[in-house]
Amino acid sequence: MATLSVDAAVLPVSIDDVHAAHRRIRDSIVRTPMLVSRTLSQMTGAKVYLKFENLQFTAAYKERGALNTLLQLSDAARAKGVIAASAGNHAQGVAYHANRLGIPATIVMPRTTPTVKVVQTEGHGATVVLEGETFDAAYAHARVLEAERGFTFVHPFDDPRVIAGQGTVALEMFEDVPELDTLLTPIGGGGLISGMATVARAQPHDVEVIGVQAELFPSMYNRIRGTHLPCAGDTLAEGIAVKEPGGITAAMVAALVDDIVLVAERNLEEAVSLLLQIEKTVVEGAGAAGLAALLAYPERFAGRCVGIVLCGGNIDTRLLANVLLRDLARSGRLARLRIRLQDQPGALYHVARIFDAQRVNIIEVYHQRIFTSLPAKGLITDIECEARDRDHLSRLIAALREGGYETSLVEQA
User: Fold this and answer.
1) Of the candidates 137, 134, 118, which has an alpha carbon nearest to the alpha carbon of residue 126?
2) Is the separation of the CB atoms in 276 and 313 below 8 Å?
3) Series of mean pLDDT values for 10-residue runs along the chain (413 residues)
């Protein structure tokens, strides 16, 4: 996909710009660790390195581009203040560093933004305006306020200063692991991958740069490939749910990025869950997109030395709990069984004895006598239970059926 013969001079961001950005911001951001994951490497057949940008103070890489932009504002622009539109992480990056630098900040966020991101943005001293249901609606309102009040707009991705700042992630990755030959990078508007690809093309060896988008929001994929896949839906990766990528970033992606892959919501959920279970680190859906692609296409990256950015960790705790429980259900460790019983004393007791014999823990029991098509003397009971794995669950179901009980697994969507 990438036109690698493109003259670097025609692109708005150079490797020198990224180095300058790093010198400008490095003392005010966290030098996040870059660690190999032995378990994920064994699972996927690639050598997997994780860049823990979720350990930034605001829990996302967005601080880098925001700070690089703020530090280049004139005194007059600083005095009037800045405005940004963001689903959350860019908002926090702008708010935190603007407050630290004494610059008034207004952030316009979609009404659908997770509460944790709204609260944290306000906690950094910004004025938050909730407007619209999507990023695009919030963006349009922010541009109106910019014109009305004389603010300086800090774009979340389509600005060379922002792109250069985001590229500093890759500078640190290659400093820590020079042998990286593949980057798997989430794409929303394209700022992160544009900066990282700029750095990758400056390496002395070939580096494959692969962008990752959620299947529900393939905006950059459409722009580059000329497709017309729909961009809509309730994605776990709301941080990269952008309907229209940037003009600057689209040009840079076309020139510098090798390919873009799409990942399903189930891949994103699995990646979020695995990172918590294996690496003991919390990431949001967008932050897990790189790993989701590796899990979805393991044969493509087998034998490669892969760098993945965990670009954000701001996930609503209730949503995280839901993702983890859904993953347990898919793995067979949590299940709901529907069992047909006779409505008579001891029926549930005899069923419970089978659970005990199989050493499966009962969590909840739901009896249904009224809203069922069974005869009046019959009932349905749903039992939520906890097994070791899917094989253990299968043995329980087999034992129940051998005991004469009509048993079915209530499948998860």
Assistant:
1) 118
2) no
3) 53 97 98 98 97 96 97 96 89 95 95 80 92 85 95 96 98 98 96 98 97 97 95 91 91 97 96 96 96 97 98 90 89 91 85 94 82 62 92 94 92 63
Distance separating alpha carbons of residues 20 and 34, to the nearest angstrom = 22
E strand spans, 265-406: 305-309, 334-342, 361-368, 378-386
CA geometry: angle 22, 78, 107, nearest 5 deg: 85
d(CA 13, CA 104): 28
Which residue is it, tokens 């829990």?
Answer: 59
d(Cα 155, Cα 169) in Å, to the nearest integer?
18
Q: Is 42 helix (H, G, I), strand (E, B) or coil?
A: helix
Q: Which of 320, 313, 276 is nearest to 55 (CA)?
A: 313
Rounded-to-integer distance, Cα 228 and Cα 221, Å: 9
Q: Are strands 208-214 and 152-153 parallel, antiparallel or unpaired?
A: unpaired
- Cα–Cα distance between 222 and 217 in angstroms, integer? 9
Sequence-ordered list of residues with C-beta below 8 angstroms from that of 371, at least 6 positions apart, any chain: none
Query: What is the CA angle 329-88-271, rounded to 5?
Result: 30
CB 65 within 8 A of CB 191: yes
Q: What is the DSSP track for 208-221?
A: EEEEEEETT--HHH
| Predicted model pTM | 0.87
Q: How far apart are CA 399 and CA 382, in angstroms?
A: 16
Residue 34 pairs in a beta bridge with 51
User: Is the separation of the CB atoms in 109 and 121 below 8 Å?
Assistant: yes
Gap between the Cα atoms of 139 and 154, Å rounded: 11
What is the structure's pLDDT at 329?
Answer: 86
